[in-house]
Amino acid sequence: QVQLVESGGGLVQTGGSLRLSCVRSGRTFSTYTMGWFRQAPGMAREFVAAIRWSSGSTVYADSVKGRFTISRDNAKNTVYLQMNSLKPEDTAVYYCASGGVLGPNLANYNTWGQGTQVTVSS
To answer: pLDDT tens across 14-27, in order?
Structure first.
C-alpha cells in the first residue's frame, strides 16, 4: 500500500518562496507519476504540476509555469515542489498524489496525501 506524506507548507509574503516535500512509501513501481494539486476554500481541487518518475518528464498548469518547479529524488522517494514568486492566489491546501498517467486529470491519481497549507499574504 502506497502512502504519501507532505510537508513544507506555511505562511509567506507575496513574492516569497516555499518548498513542499512529499515522501512516498510502500509498494513502488518504476512506472508511475507523482503530482501536486491544490484546493482553495470553496474551490475545486486543481492540478499544479506532475512528474513521471522514471523519465523525469514534467507538466505544469499554466498558472504556475515559470514560477514552480517539480522535481524528484529517487534515493529518498521524495517529490518536491519549489514555489517561487508566490502570489495570494496561490493560497490553498496543497496535495501530493500518485498515479499512472502523466497529466492534469485528477481521475488518473489514486493515492493522495493529507495536504499541507500554503498561505501567501499580500
So the answer is: 999 999 999 998 87
